Every structure is written in C-alpha cells, then in structure tokens.
Amino acid sequence: MMTYLNDMFGLDIGYFQWVTYCFPFILVMIPITWFIVNWRFKPRIKSLAPAMDQLRYEIGKMGKWDRKQIWALIIFLVMVYGWFTEKAFYQLGIYPVRLGIGVIAVAGAVAYIMAGVVNWRDYQQRVDWGVVWLYAGAIIFGRVLDETGAAYWLARTIIDALAPLGMNHGLPLILVNNGLTACLTNLMADGPAAAAVGPISLNMAGLVHPGTSYLPFMAMGTAVASSFAYVLIIGTPPNAIVYASGYLEPKDYLRVGIPMWFMANIVIILLVAVYWCLRGFGGLPGF
Fold first, then answer.
1. How far is CA 103 from the centre of its chain?
2. Domain count of the chain?
3. What span, in angstroms and rounded, lies between the C-alpha atoms of 72 and 116?
4. If the chain, 287 residues long, is cut into consecutive pieces of 10 residues, what is the mean pLDDT of each piece?
C-alpha cells in the first residue's frame, strides 16, 4: 500500500512514521478486544497461575541462551533498527538508494543463513511459499489495475455512485472505503486485500482531494482496515491456526468477529478525524 502511494503520487511513508500514526489504534483496540471477548465468552478460569508455573518450567528446561538464539536476537534487532531508520538515512544521503523494508527483511533472512541460525532446507520446508505467491499475485493484480487505467475507472464509478448520498469526499468516503476493504479482507489474506484495493482507494483520494493529507490518510486507513479479518476462518492465517486447535467453531468467530469488525471501523475513523487530522502529514494541507 505504501509502495503504491509512493509510485502513484510521490508521497513516502517510512516505517517509523507509519508506527507513530497507526500504533495508537492498537492501544485503543486492546481494551476493546478484551471487553468484547470476555462479554461473548464468559471466562471459566479465574487464575493463570498454573499456566505461568508450567511456562516457567518449560523455560527452565531450555537452559541458558545458546549461540543461535543470541544471533537470532541480534539480527532481528538490527532489522528492526533498519526498518525505523532507512527512510531517514536515505534522506541524509547515507544510503545511495532507498532500501525499503522488503530489502532489509530479505537481508535479515540471508543473515540468518550466514550466521547458522537456519539453513536453506528450513526455508524450503517451513515457509509457506503458496502464501508468498498469493501476495505476489495480488500485487501484480493491483499494478495491472493501475497501469491499465482500470483502477481510475473503478474509482470514478464508485465516487459517482456515492455522490447522491453525500459520501464521495472527506471522512464519509474513508469510512466507505475502509468498510469495503474490511469486508474483502475476510475473504482473502490482508496483504492481497490491500494490494487489490489500494490502487482504487488512492485513485479515489486523488480525484476528490488531490495534493492533500487525504492521500496518505486514505492509504494508511486502507492498510489498517485490511487487517480487520475477524469474522471468517479464512480471513487470515492466525484465524486458521486457532481454529485448528479444536476449541472453537466457525460460529464463535461470528460471535466475536462481528462486533469487533464494527468497533474497529469506528475506531479507525475516529483516529483519522482526531489524531491524524491534528497531527497532519509532512507539510501537506488538510482536507
């Protein structure tokens, strides 16, 4: 999504900048999630002391950190530092080219092999390459939509359809866009959903509020909404992993997922209207 914003409009959102804008959403959603889960599923276990004792026992059996664990932590911290600083270092001229978080992540994967933490067979057997190709296909789909003009045509069509309702600009358009993205992400993974919707969302933003903070706000809102896969098992891999435990049924996702879906859309639009608008974006005028 951030790549589309840079390629299509020349606006750049760095990793650190992304965190400062979007991390408050997590802070707000944590207590809301806790309340909804406890409301829909009354807890029968009041104390986690036995589980904590078992966890301490398992950690104790592991013993002291070995060389691989230390190298894994060091490489991970270097990767995170690179994600936070790559935009600033590029602007300062320290990096001759813009690396992006993808290049740094691949470099970290190579570093794990060179440090002996993993080997190539681990990547072959334990990485779900089908998911990787799914993401790649979705990105290609988004590129094709943009380069052929289909994204612009769809954006124009959606705006014209929303105009009689007065929802073709400003916060109402962001709300509609986030809602559609949040619906789509429950039918596919979050990455492909953002990759497919991204060009259309940005074209809509460019049509109604060109050259304003609306463009990055629309991009970040779409990216966040693509993670609202609360309702269906197939929406995101963590849902399938939890379902595989055998403790939940599909209807359990609906019990928690539907109210979570609505609350997440409300919180993100409030975040845009209050925090993002007050903070602005890189000197761009408001909308």
1. 18
2. 1
3. 9
4. 68 85 94 93 83 87 86 94 88 82 90 92 82 75 81 89 90 93 86 84 90 90 92 84 85 92 95 91 79
Are the beta carbons of 230 and 182 closer than 8 angstroms?
Answer: no
Please report whether residue 225 resides in a domain: yes
Residue 233 domain-assigned?
A: yes
- Please check whether residue 262 lies inside any domain of the structure: yes
pTM score, two decimals?
Answer: 0.83
Instruction: Tell me the Ramachandran region of residue 187: left when phi exceeds 0, alpha when psi lies from -120 to 50, beta otherwise.
Output: alpha
Q: What angle do CA 273, 277, 280 make, to 5 degrees?
A: 160
Cα–Cα separations (whole angstroms), residue 186 to 18, 115, 266 = 23, 38, 17
* Full residue range of the structural domain in which residue 271 is found: 1-12+129-280
Specify the pLDDT at position 27.
Answer: 95
Residue 83 forms part of a structural domain: no
HEC profile of 119-145: CHHHHHHHCCHHHHHHHHHHHHHHHHH
| 203 contacts 215 by C-beta, under 8 angstroms | no
